[in-house]
Amino acid sequence: MKKKKKQKSYKTKNLPPGTISYRGKKTSTVTHVDIINYNSTVYNILESQSVEDAFNFKDKDTITWININGLSNIEEIEKLGKNYQLHPLTLEDIGNTNHRPKLDEFENYLFIVFKMLHFKNEEELVYEHMSMVVGEEFVLTFQEADGDVFNDLRERISNGKGRIRGLGSDYLMYAILDAVVDHYITVIEAFGDRVEELEDAVFNAQYNNNISNHIQDQKREILKIRRNIVPLREVINKLEKTETKIIEEKTHDFLRDLYDHIVHVNENIELYREMIWSLMDMYMTIISNKMNEVMKVLTIIATIFIPLTFIAGIYGMNFDNIPELHYQNGYFVLLGVMAFIFVLMLMYFRRKKWL
Amino acid sequence: MKKKKKQKSYKTKNLPPGTISYRGKKTSTVTHVDIINYNSTVYNILESQSVEDAFNFKDKDTITWININGLSNIEEIEKLGKNYQLHPLTLEDIGNTNHRPKLDEFENYLFIVFKMLHFKNEEELVYEHMSMVVGEEFVLTFQEADGDVFNDLRERISNGKGRIRGLGSDYLMYAILDAVVDHYITVIEAFGDRVEELEDAVFNAQYNNNISNHIQDQKREILKIRRNIVPLREVINKLEKTETKIIEEKTHDFLRDLYDHIVHVNENIELYREMIWSLMDMYMTIISNKMNEVMKVLTIIATIFIPLTFIAGIYGMNFDNIPELHYQNGYFVLLGVMAFIFVLMLMYFRRKKWL
Amino acid sequence: MKKKKKQKSYKTKNLPPGTISYRGKKTSTVTHVDIINYNSTVYNILESQSVEDAFNFKDKDTITWININGLSNIEEIEKLGKNYQLHPLTLEDIGNTNHRPKLDEFENYLFIVFKMLHFKNEEELVYEHMSMVVGEEFVLTFQEADGDVFNDLRERISNGKGRIRGLGSDYLMYAILDAVVDHYITVIEAFGDRVEELEDAVFNAQYNNNISNHIQDQKREILKIRRNIVPLREVINKLEKTETKIIEEKTHDFLRDLYDHIVHVNENIELYREMIWSLMDMYMTIISNKMNEVMKVLTIIATIFIPLTFIAGIYGMNFDNIPELHYQNGYFVLLGVMAFIFVLMLMYFRRKKWL
Amino acid sequence: MKKKKKQKSYKTKNLPPGTISYRGKKTSTVTHVDIINYNSTVYNILESQSVEDAFNFKDKDTITWININGLSNIEEIEKLGKNYQLHPLTLEDIGNTNHRPKLDEFENYLFIVFKMLHFKNEEELVYEHMSMVVGEEFVLTFQEADGDVFNDLRERISNGKGRIRGLGSDYLMYAILDAVVDHYITVIEAFGDRVEELEDAVFNAQYNNNISNHIQDQKREILKIRRNIVPLREVINKLEKTETKIIEEKTHDFLRDLYDHIVHVNENIELYREMIWSLMDMYMTIISNKMNEVMKVLTIIATIFIPLTFIAGIYGMNFDNIPELHYQNGYFVLLGVMAFIFVLMLMYFRRKKWL
Amino acid sequence: MKKKKKQKSYKTKNLPPGTISYRGKKTSTVTHVDIINYNSTVYNILESQSVEDAFNFKDKDTITWININGLSNIEEIEKLGKNYQLHPLTLEDIGNTNHRPKLDEFENYLFIVFKMLHFKNEEELVYEHMSMVVGEEFVLTFQEADGDVFNDLRERISNGKGRIRGLGSDYLMYAILDAVVDHYITVIEAFGDRVEELEDAVFNAQYNNNISNHIQDQKREILKIRRNIVPLREVINKLEKTETKIIEEKTHDFLRDLYDHIVHVNENIELYREMIWSLMDMYMTIISNKMNEVMKVLTIIATIFIPLTFIAGIYGMNFDNIPELHYQNGYFVLLGVMAFIFVLMLMYFRRKKWL
After folding, report:
1. Same CATH fold, C287-351 and C32-285?
2. Chain E residues with CB inside 8 Å of D185's CB?
């Protein structure tokens, strides 16, 4: 097992509450800003390095989606916070990449924290912290790094396909969460495949320390996945139940559907968790079975030959007077006796079903 | 254990919500439509390949049950959706065969998703995705493939026996769910028989890797059954509690009874789950007992004969001066000593209750 | 372990809901009817084979308790159902001996399903399905077979002792349930005695496959008891909480007391369940300890004598030139060396606390 | 383990509900009555054998605490019941020493059942059934035997210290429960000390069947403690929440504090329960470790000497023509080879970290 | 493992409720008092040994934070209680260092009990009991000993940075709790590092009794952490929900944020708990694997050489007539046969995948 680098990312200094500070891995040094502005007739897209380019869209009758990649540029986030009147605690939580999924309702916006999961190099599972501010005419999303799961969504907006262009910021919020949850499903399925591979490996007796390490790794991974995904269920539930002017009536059907999806995800997480735990038991059983088999081989060999060796030892003694040694057929008779004992032993083991 | 074919059926592309797409195994290429139209005096049955044949029944004062076998023919489902004004999300969920059981209430219909379980070739347990739309005058059911558990029900409708012909679409919905849950009971009982067979096998010492694989298979199966059946309990509970014009007052008694049945099913699932888990423990205990027995045989044989062999070895040494070797009865005395040690050892083991 | 006869008793055919059919073991072919009719001044008792004898009591100002033994005589039950206006689902559930405990409230009666537990031949625990219909002036009870736990109760009614003769059908219902729950307590205590016997057996090292089978049997038994008794708690709770004209205000105190009893029963069930589970662990520990002891004996003997035998083997070799063999006291010196090694080994094991 | 005497104390005869009968151990044949009568100015104490002495205090403006030691004297309890108008079920529950903790509210009094725990001879934990009736001007307590945990409380009343003399029967009830719960804390702490001693014993390798018996005993004890103490939490919670004229407003603060204490007790019970369970695991691990060590010693010795003994056996054969035997230095060369194999083996084991 | 000193700190004498008595470790003999008095314009700090110095701040329009270090000086606490009109039970709980976290609401103040966790000497985790009284214009905090986690907070107050100086006592309460919970996070992270180190140690086969002791120690520690931290979640939840004039509307956002943090802490506690438990399983598996390996080595060596030694024993016998001994090449043929058996055995083991 490779030595895990310990990543100490949570604040240890007790900063005044509401202080923005980036607590992630500092891998994305530059902040990219993608701005999409649309309504049923209009569509603008803008890539920029400054959030200020988005401010002129603010009071127009369009939906503005501002996506920030990289959280290390605190000034930009503060500008955004000022322009959209975000609460200091919201700004703090945007930068706190260890925050668990949650929903905060403020007077003029909703604030949602969640995790985006995807595989890097088909192997390592990456947990990216995301947060989203949803106002009546705008959606702000904050990501730790470039690369996300929203390409299909962006295409749908630009093509004007589906109903998204005709609907409000609440539907955009739903579409973003839906894309994230859809990707959870992919991740969980890939995880399930891994578990089944492990299962096959365990059954096919490729049992060694390596396998138990793999099982242990998957245990840890599923615990981590659970911690990052499961709280989103409660968030979406609250989102569906909440009474706010931001979410329109007809979006509730979609949120309810999204809730069904996240419940599906959570159930699969629990399923795989149980399967991994039970795999460990299985593994132990197979080890025990193997041990039993090993012991049986030893016992059969030792039980047969130790008494025979003893008999041979008897007649290997150098006493002057051992009458049997001088019989003409003593040797052959003894070989016969030994063969008889041998057969007797074999029958005993067969009756015990050891053979 | 046979290598499981990995079936990747959940969408990985983030389609716009509300898109219909069939995500099942694509085994049923043709879509069959069965239409039953009845009230207390009228009874029509129609087998067709197109749903349009059902549309002329729509505004008559009869109950129309349209059953679609095969979900791959998306156009037919869309036609149906248009005619009965189904929500896009309903259409999406009809095709999503991985969806967990749920109940959605819409303004003019109820939408219920559940699983139909039956055995194929007495061996393999098949999980068929079903969905049902219940309106005031119609019931639409969607199945993945031909073959279902509703033959008794169809006969009762055609015979006019029982109260079904005189009651509304809500009673038909109940009768369909009742048939499904009744079949769950049969499935669970068959599963219980398997568990008991395994138990007998474990007790009768037919313990080997094969058995532990069987136990593991049943563990997985019961987890899968649980995942597919248990959520229906909540669905039926909601159905009983819901206040909708579609379900009449007197049907509630029947739904309550149905709820009792599904609770019975769920309890049995939990029971068998506990029994399988405990069976694994039992199996481990029996292995340990066997190992103990094997070890005892080895220990008894080795403990008796190793010291005796040592003594024989002593008198097999070639020292010039070993006085005992030259005693007239040295050999016989030694044999006597050895027999004495042998008996002593046996007594020791008997006192330890190893014999 | 004796091969369990599989008893397939749940319907596999999807009958129309509300159909009466007896799904028990068909052991009681004849249906006995006991009718007790009483108020504070009147007392009649009647044994009959037909329920019709009870119908003339119906509109009198007395409490009528009709007890049906044997459920196979469907016509009698239907007559009763007609006379007392029972719902078809009630009639179905009376015959369904697999039904879990439940309470149904109908307009003019309460319907309670529960299990009566008693020992047959001091050994086998019998689960008898019972149901009870409680109206304002009558109580109907349905048992699978003759023999029950109500003899004390019947005596109290006939003697006119206690308050029962002066009270209504709700108090009779309470008294019946109280007798059943009292008998649960006896059963659970007997079960507890069995568990303690098993515990003693485990501690007294009478460990073998037989014991683990016994433990496993008790595990299964307690799971079965739990499944049959535990739901009654919820039934009695509902009974205490329900607002119906059938149950008078002052009976609620008694029902609350009954609830305390059933909670007591349930707690004991959980207690014994935990004890049995923990007994299995105990048993495994004792096996491990035994194995450890066996291994130690083997190791001590082998570790002492294998090296000594090797040394003896050295001087049993037939090399022409082994100088030690020709020393005058070579043999005795070697014996001394061997004794020294022997003592050394013993000291080593003593230091390791193996001796 | 000493054979437990089975004490069958729960009624097996179905007596009419409300019958008083003592179901305890019948150890206290005589009933003692302690009567304390007080208000802020008055203080009387009276030891008697009859409850009738207390009746003249009844209508005075003082608080009367009547404490009954010994429940076998049914007539006295019935007199008391008559005088204070107790419900028949209350009288029944006073005598039922198996009753779990509970709170019953009646029109003019509260009835509380709980357990008093204390150590007998520093070793055996005794569970004494207690019940308490709290009216507006009186408190009745019923104990199984002499000796209780209320001496400090009695002293406070007689001294007039603290606020108790100026307050009502509800405060006296609180003070009694507080004394009981305080004693729980002492008991739990003593239990915790035992668990820690066991832990030390396990760590210090004093592992044998005895220890596992001790662990098992403590498991059983903590289950019993839990069953007797835990329900009191709910009782005190209900007491705090209940709206009755008997409990004055300002006493609620004290009850809330008492609730905190009982929650503290329950948490410690759960903590020790988890610790004992985990101790068993620990014990199993240590056994496994020991076994591993034993096996290693055996394996090292056997693996080294068995091949060497084989070699010695080769040259102990009596073939006419074994050239090596006649080499001048054959014996010494062979000894060298054996030493070399010996060293090689040691190195192998060292590399495997077995040495 | 070092012998734990048993610290008996909970009262065993049943004192009158409301009695103040210090039940801690009596390590801090002197009581220090820190008084900070501030509003947006004023800032005073005072270190004293008497609480009376704080009383002149009482009615001024400033926030007064009085921090008491050391609880053994009961008179000072009583003076404080008198001056701020604290309930006797509050005073009792301030001194009871075993009290679990809780929130009590009184008419004119809130009383919060919690634990401050920090590491002493980077090794030992110290649990310090703290309580806090929050009134409209004052905050009183009580600590067991000097040294706390509030230095950053004090600095912020003295610098006038952040919003704290402009806000009320409720915000100060929030800031104190925030500092405590922030420190929990540090503690939990350090604990997590320990768990990961243990995990590495287990995987790197440094398995011995020592490691299992370490795992056991961490088990105990996490149970203790959980007991001390987890109840604070409920406290903060109640604090957020409570309707009191002391907590202003805008502070609720901060409390909600704090609640998220404590939930985060609790989730991590559960995570590490599961990881430690699963580590024990892992450890057992590795031991089993090792044992298996040991057994295999023994079995291979014994199974190969015991039969060979037997054969050598045969030809070491001294029968007069053993024809093979006199063959010219008998010895060499036998060596060949032995080599053949040896190779055969090796192939058998290779096929069994033991080599």
Report:
1. no
2. 10-12
Partners of chain E (3+ Cβ pairs below 8 A): A, D
CB interface of A with B, residues 124-153, below 8 Å: 149, 152-153
Across the interface, of D4, D280, D301, the residue whose CB is closest to C281 is D280
Q: Higher-confidence residue: E54 or E265?
A: E265
CA D4 vs. chain centroid, Å, equals: 17
pTM: 0.79
Q: Does B336 touch chain C (CB under 8 A)?
A: no
CATH architecture for the domain at D287-351: Up-down Bundle (1.20)
Distance CA C258, CA C252 (A): 10
Delimit the domains of chain A by residue range.
Answer: 32-285, 287-351
Task: Give the CATH architecture of domain B32-285.
Answer: 2-Layer Sandwich (3.30)
pLDDT greater at residue C62 or residue A72: C62
**Chain D contacts of E283, Cβ < 8 Å?**
285
Give the pLDDT confidence of C164-176 residue by residue, as tens digits: 888 889 999 999 9
Token representation of residue E292 = 């298996």
User: Quick check: D291 contacting E, CB < 8 Å?
Assistant: yes
Task: Name the average pLDDT for chain E.
Answer: 85
CB proximity D337 to C under 8 Å: no
H helices of chain A, where?
74-83, 88-95, 151-159, 169-203, 209-241, 251-314, 330-351
Q: B321 to chain C: nearest residue by CA?
A: C328
Disruptive mutation site among E148, E183, E188, E299 for chain A (greatest number of A CBs within 10 Å): E299
Is the reported ipTM for this assembly greater than 0.85?
no
Long-range contacts of B76-81 (CB under 8 A, 24+ apart): B76/B31, B76/B33, B76/B50, B76/B51, B77/B20, B77/B51, B77/B142, B78/B20, B79/B51, B79/B52, B80/B51, B80/B140, B81/B20
Of the partner residues C163, C302, C318, the one whose CB lies closest to the CB of residue D301: C302
In three state form, how does the secondary structure of chain B look?
CCCCCCCCCCCCCCCCCCCCCCCCCCCCCCCEEEEEEECCCCEEEEEECCHHHHHHHCCCCCEEEEEEECCCCHHHHHHHHHHCCCCHHHHHHHHCCCCCCEEEECCCCEEEEEEEEEEECCCEEEEEEEEEEECCCEEEEEECCCCCCCHHHHHHHHHCCCCHHHCCHHHHHHHHHHHHHHHHHHHHHHHHHHHHHHHHHHHCCCCCHHHHHHHHHHHHHHHHHHHHHHHHHHHHHHHHHCCCCCCCCCHHHHHHHHHHHHHHHHHHHHHHHHHHHHHHHHHHHHHHHHHHHHHHHHHHHHHHHHHHHHHHHHCCCCCCCCHHHHCCCHHHHHHHHHHHHHHHHHHHHHHCCCC
Find the residue in A nearest to B314 (Cα).
A317
Q: CB of C312 within 8 Å of any CB in chain B?
A: yes
> Which among C232, C235, C239 is positioned nearest to C269, based on CA atoms?
C232
Within an 8 Å CB–CB cutoff, is residue A284 touching chain E? yes
**Of B14, B226, B331, which to mutate for an interface test with A (greatest number of A Cβ within 10 Å)?**
B14
pLDDT at B14: 66
**CB atoms inside a 10 Å sphere around CB B323:** 9
Å between B214 CA and nearest CA of chain C: 19
- The first and second tokens of residue C199, run together, are 């515990």
Count CB pairs under 8 A between chains A and E: 159
Nearest-CA distance A301 → chain E (Å): 6
Q: CB of E153 within 8 A of CB of E162? A: no
Q: Which CATH number fits domain E286-351: 1.10.357.20, 3.40.630.40, 3.90.70.10, 1.20.58.340?
A: 1.20.58.340
Residue B193, pLDDT above cutoff 60: yes
